[in-house]
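Supplementary notes for students who missed Thursday's class. We covered one full example, reproduced here. Read the sequence, then the structure, then the short commentary at the end.
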Amino acid sequence: MKVPSKKLLVVDDDPDMQEFFQTILGPKGKGYAVSGVVEAALALPAIQKDMPDLVILDVMMEEADSGFKLANLLSQKFALLPILLLSSIADASEGFMDTLALPVQRILQKPITPERLIEEVEQILSPAPAE
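Structure (token representation):
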């Protein structure tokens, strides 16, 4: 019996990034069920409809801080939902906000290699070893 695939929701307004995530992580890549939305406002309804195991979230979409705002909202509504935040301004963002206080599992710099993306996603989705 095949184990159901983990579900990933990509929130990114760049169609090329949506395609990248689908290619690398989707059925023809690592085998995850990848869905995507192109603006932060569409993320909440998508999550409520089909709860993902991980949200991959871009920082800059409709507004420069759309991803930060959405990460905070999601952490309030879905406290256990892991978030992987991707940004082309990750280093710069540390200068104007405390990124350690963000409710995300990881913040990664774009561009990201397929190997690094897979490694980070698998680490987040892997169950913690029993102590």
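Commentary. Confidence is low (pLDDT under 50) at residues 92-98. The longest helix spans residues 66-77. If anything here is unclear, bring it to office hours.
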